[in-house]
């Protein structure tokens, strides 16, 4: 009878229902067809226990901080700093695109926010200087996924809450992988610059380094406040998120300032995003409850044992599953649906929770730049006017490079774990 559930889920999805209702309705139906209806009475308690996690409070606060910064005129200052540092290299504006994403990642922690902001600004500038519009859009989409890896990261908070793992350790663990990803994209852009003879930024067009640093310094203080406060034990991640909101408002005043309309839009957008995430969390909690009742994680662990998979082999299988899931599902949905089922088996096989979190979150963010869905591809395509499938084809080499970085992170756990251990945040 369980075959009814996926058919019903597809029917719900085709009817235009919101994703949270599709997941929730399918979960309730799964309880019924699996003869677990009697356990529905305790479902509300299970749902609220899943979302009553203190570290989840950091999520809306970081979203709000990012919204305030995005509306406060910080983007131009970060682009000018990137132009001053790397703009005069061959393929300079491509390097600027990647470096701006690194700076932006420490402010918004959102791939979608990065993609939208830089599509509006850097893609037209690159096209004007002689880059093809498709290439400019592709590197913008590819570099945007640095955002969810470098702290502050919404999905790392999400993983930490679901798996009861230190968010502070996850934040610090994301720094080196984010920089390795940026280095890979720099290398890809340099190769394309040589192959396609991309231009440099002229000396006259490149901003002076010292004025650019001075202009961008207030914006760059924000990631320092967040990471420094957490690393030195002055603040919990949730407290750091609250401080980040105040700091973001002060920094925004240094640039273009915030109107009442900007404040209202920031609050509204934060409420909408937070509400949608928590609705999905509640719906997925129902599936988690059913999985626990049916002992699905234990069955998966037994299957891994029966197949004789080594820890590395299981990690490879896990990554293949997540890459496919990332192509089809929203990152938050994939995290909530799959991690409670697949992650405990990896942990039982000896995986480190922090390393596993970085691998899982990195893996799923690659789905933002891979078809058929590709959230960042859709955003960049919509903003720039580049046809979706033209953009998808152009971004494939960058996505392959990102999968290569993922393989490196799987093979060398110390890339993720070195900083948390050095700073005493993880054993």
Give the structure's gist in a few sentences.
With 427 residues, the chain is mainly alpha-helical. It has 21 helices and no strands.
Would you kindly provide a written description of the structure presented here, covering whatever features stand out?
This protein has one domain. Helix content is 77%, strand content 0%. It has 21 helices and no strands.
Question: Which descriptors apply to this entry?
Answer:
mainly alpha, 77% helix
Q: Level of helix content? A: over 70%
Q: How would you sum up the major sheet?
A: none
Strand content: under 5%
Give the count of structural domains: 1
Report how far apart the termini are. Answer: 46 Å
The oligomeric status of these chains comes to single chain
Please write the string of helix (H) and strand (E) elements: HHHHHHHHHHHHHHHHHHHHH
SSE class: mainly alpha
Number of helices: 21
Flag low-confidence runs.
Answer: none
According to DSSP, the number of beta strands is 0
Indicate the topology.
Layout: H1 4-14, H2 19-33, H3 43-51, H4 58-71, H5 74-86, H6 92-108, H7 111-128, H8 133-144, H9 154-163, H10 167-173, H11 175-196, H12 209-231, H13 237-254, H14 260-293, H15 296-307, H16 311-328, H17 331-348, H18 353-366, H19 375-384, H20 388-411, H21 414-422
Helix pairs in contact: 1-2, 2-14, 3-14, 4-13, 4-14, 5-6, 5-12, 6-7, 6-8, 6-11, 7-8, 7-19, 8-19, 8-20, 9-17, 9-18, 10-21, 11-20, 12-13, 14-17, 15-17, 16-17, 16-18, 17-18, 18-20
